[in-house]
Design a protein that fits this description.
There is one protein chain. With 361 residues, the chain is α+β, with helices and mostly antiparallel strands. It has twelve helices and ten strands. The protein has helices at residues 7-23, 26-33, 41-50, 68-81, 87-101, 104-115, 126-130, 213-246, 258-287, 289-317, 329-341, 346-356, and strands at 121-124, 137-141, 144-153, 160-164, 170-174, 180-185, 194-203, 205-206, 248-249, 252-253. Strand 6 and strand 7 form a beta hairpin. The longest helix is centred in the middle third of the chain and has 34 residues, at 213-246.
């Protein structure tokens, strides 16, 4: 039995990596991180030309009609390139919400425009999944939303926002809706813009309830965040090994010292099982839905813990150079850190996994 990805999937991932290398090299990422007014429209345009916004959207709506495993491979490429685009919400969660819970009219109105990249979506779903902070949370009454949503990736510029209320219902809100206020949130990761959204009696279109759509968005989000972290970890490991093979101390490259060899070997040994976890979680989302929630939780929690170890150890291999802006390691380091916390840190995700297995109330 073949447990590897297909040649077409490998070709897609490699092609996307080349596109990102051209459209978003490290210097472009550095420029984006240093300018809060930079919306990365040129990078988004390159991804629109590639067809990435439609990766999950069915062909009947102008998309590619691929699976979450394909989206996870794209997320790996995003993490490797520390690409400053709102991939999670725009290319995955917002389209999935419409696909799982949207009416025929809602799907017809929005999915073709999302697939072309004309409309950029976002998902404000953190509070019912990861718990509310600072009084955050959204309530729905009479077709209107009130409250606050935090940590919304791409929420500052999104044309359409999928909002989860405290009762786990999903709603569509236009980016220009009256009563919607958006403000930037500061995080350790400068390659992605997070938003705080405040709703003051904002008109919203409800999505179908009772479909399990929010759980599906949670599972997809956990899996894609783990995939993004996996890609970032791969780069940090590669850079650590390359540096160890060229940096000399006491007349020999530091990679020849047993302690440094062990550091690199341990990173590789810890990281490789994460790839199987992430790929299987993404596969299960479409092919084995009964396993999707638990495997997504395992992938998110374990990759978060391994990611922190790899980020720290790879930086240590570089010594003092590891913390300099010139080297740029901090972009991957912080990307991994934010992935760890978005939609719930590993402790909360493991608690969900325990409940799913009947091990906790």
């Amino acid at each position: 039995m073949d447990f590897s990805i297909t040649s077409d999937q490998k070709l897609m991932q490699d092609s996307l990596s080349r596109t990102l290398a051209d459209a978003s090299p490290l210097d472009r990422v550095r420029a984006y991180a240093g300018d809060l007014t930079d919306s990365g429209t040129d990078i988004w345009a390159a991804l629109r030309d590639f067809g990435l916004p439609g990766v999950l959207i069915p062909e009947e709506f102008g998309g590619l009609g691929l699976t979450l495993l394909d989206a996870a491979l794209a997320a790996e490429a995003m993490g490797r390139a520390v690409a400053p685009v709102p991939f999670l919400g725009a290319c995955a969660l917002a389209p999935l919400a419409l696909m799982r819970a949207g009416s025929a009219d809602q799907q017809t109105a929005w999915l073709p425009r999302m697939a072309s990249g004309e409309v950029q979506g976002a998902a404000a779903i953190s509070e019912p999944i990861a718990g509310a902070r600072d009084g955050a949370g959204v309530t729905a009454a009479a077709g209107k939303l009130s409250g606050k949503a935090l940590f919304v990736e791409g929420g500052l510029t999104a044309d359409l926002i999928v909002v989860a209320d405290q009762a786990r219902g999903l709603h569509l809100v236009r980016g220009d809706a009256k009563g919607l206020a958006r403000s930037p949130m500061t995080s350790i990761d400068q390659t992605r813009r997070l938003a705080e959204l405040v709703f003051d009696e904002v008109e919203a279109e409800p999505l179908a309830s009772g479909t399990g759509a929010l759980d599906a968005l949670r599972d997809a989000g956990w899996t894609l965040l783990a995939a993004d972290a996996l890609g970032a970890c791969d780069v940090m490991l590669e850079k650590a090994v390359a540096y160890a093979q060229e940096r000399k101390q006491f007349g020999r490259v530091i990679g020849s010292f047993q302690a440094v060899k062990h550091m690199c070997a341990e990173m590789a040994a810890e990281l490789e099982p994460c790839r199987a976890l992430v790929w299987y979680a993404a596969y299960a989302f479409d092919a084995a839905p009964d396993e999707a929630s638990l495997t997504a939780a395992h992938a998110k929690a374990h990759t978060s813990e391994v990611g922190r170890f790899v980020a720290r150890t790879a930086t240590e291999v570089h010594g003092g150079m590891g913390i300099t802006d010139l080297l740029g390691l901090h972009f991957w380091f912080k990307r991994i850190g934010l992935n760890r916390q978005l939609l719930g840190g590993p402790e909360r995700v493991r608690a969900t996994a325990a409940r799913l297995q009947g091990l906790a109330a």
